[in-house]
C-alpha cells in the first residue's frame, strides 16, 4: 500500500500509469461535476452554483497539459533524456488527491458557505449568517485541503524526480517555477475560454 500511495511512479509501467491516470482524471472530473467543483487552475478549486457538464473535464485537461508541458521543458533542462510520457503520467496521477476536495460540496454546502462569506465581505456584514459550526467546518475543510495540496505537490515532485532523475537545487527551483507558471497559464487559458 505504501508503494501505491507514495511511490507509484517507481513501481508501475508507463502504460499502466497512463491508463489509471486517464481513468482517474475522468472520474475526478465527473465527481467535480456532480459536486459543482471547478479546478480553474492547477492549484485552485472553487465551488459554483451553475456548472456545465464539460467544465471540469476541460479544466482538468488544461491543467494537466499546461503542467505537463512546463514540467517537460524543465525536465529537459535537468536531463536531456526526460520523456514527455513520464511527465504527463506524473501530472495525471498527482492530481488524484486534489479531486477529493470536490466531496466537500455535498448538497452544495461549501458553495453556499463560500457565497455567504463573499456577501459578508462585500455587502452587508451585519447580515452574516454564519454559525459556529460553519466556522468549524471551514477550519476542517482548510486543514484537509492543505493536506491534499501537499500530497498532490509531493506526488507531482516524486513523478518529476523519477522522470528526470532530478537531483540538486536546480531541479527543485525549476520544478517550483514550472508549477507557478503552470498555475498562471492554466488560469489565463481557462479565463479566456469561459469569460
Describe this protein's structure.
There is one protein chain. With 195 residues, the chain is an all-alpha fold. It has one domain. It has 9 helices and 2 strands; from the N terminus they run H-H-H-E-E-H-H-H-H-H-H. Helix 4 (55-78) crosses helix 5 and helix 4 (55-78) runs antiparallel to helix 9. The chain starts with a helix and ends with a helix. The mean pLDDT is 90. This is Neutral ceramidase superfamily lipid hydrolase. The chain crosses the membrane at residues 16-35, 55-75, 96-115, 135-157, 169-194. GO terms for molecular function: hydrolase activity. Keywords: Hydrolase, Membrane, Transmembrane, Transmembrane helix.
Structure characteristics:
two-stranded antiparallel sheet, 2% strand, 9 helices, mainly alpha, 195 residues
Tell me the layout of helices and strands:
Blueprint: H1 2-6, H2 8-11, H3 14-34, E1 37-38, E2 46-47, H4 55-78, H5 84-94, H6 96-99, H7 109-122, H8 132-164, H9 169-194
Antiparallel strand pairs: 1-2
Helix pairs in contact: 3-4, 3-5, 4-5, 4-9, 5-8
Count of the domains = 1
- The radius of gyration over CA amounts to 18 Å
How do the strands of the widest beta sheet line up side by side?
A: 1-2
Low-confidence stretches: none
- Give the % helix: over 70%
Assembly state (oligomeric):
single chain
- Structural class of the secondary structure composition? mainly alpha
Largest sheet: 2 strands, antiparallel
> In whole angstroms, how far apart are the ends?
43 Å
Proportion of beta-strand residues: under 5%
Number of helices: 9
Give the ordered list of helices and strands: HHHEEHHHHHH
Overall form: globular
Counted beta strands: 2
Q: Which whole number gives the mean pLDDT?
A: 90
Keywords: Hydrolase, Membrane, Transmembrane, Transmembrane helix
GO molecular function: hydrolase activity
Protein name: Neutral ceramidase superfamily lipid hydrolase
Organism: Mesonia maritima
Amino acid at each position: 500500500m505504501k508503494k501505491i500511495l507514495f511511490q507509484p511512479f517507481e513501481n508501475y509501467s508507463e502504460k499502466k500509469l497512463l491508463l489509471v491516470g486517464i481513468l482517474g482524471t475522468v472520474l475526478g472530473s465527473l465527481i467535480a461535476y456532480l459536486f459543482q467543483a471547478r479546478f480553474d487552475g492547477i492549484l485552485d478549486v472553487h465551488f459554483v452554483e451553475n456548472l456545465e457538464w464539460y467544465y471540469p473535464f476541460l479544466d482538468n485537461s488544461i491543467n494537466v497539459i499546461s503542467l505537463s508541458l512546463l514540467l517537460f521543458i524543465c525536465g529537459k533542462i535537468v536531463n536531456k533524456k526526460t520523456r514527455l510520457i513520464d511527465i504527463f503520467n506524473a501530472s495525471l496521477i498527482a492530481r488524484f488527491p486534489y479531486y477529493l476536495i470536490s466531496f466537500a460540496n455535498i448538497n452544495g454546502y461549501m458553495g453556499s458557505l463560500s457565497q455567504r462569506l463573499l456577501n459578508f465581505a462585500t455587502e452587508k456584514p451585519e447580515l452574516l449568517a454564519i454559525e459556529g459550526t460553519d466556522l468549524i467546518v471551514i477550519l476542517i475543510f482548510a486543514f484537509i485541503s492543505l493536506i491534499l495540496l501537499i500530497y498532490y505537490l509531493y506526488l507531482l515532485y516524486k513523478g518529476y524526480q523519477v522522470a528526470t532523475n532530478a537531483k540538486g537545487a536546480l531541479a527543485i527551483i525549476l520544478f517550483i517555477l514550472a508549477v507557478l507558471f503552470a498555475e498562471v497559464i492554466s488560469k489565463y487559458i481557462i479565463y479566456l475560454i469561459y469569460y
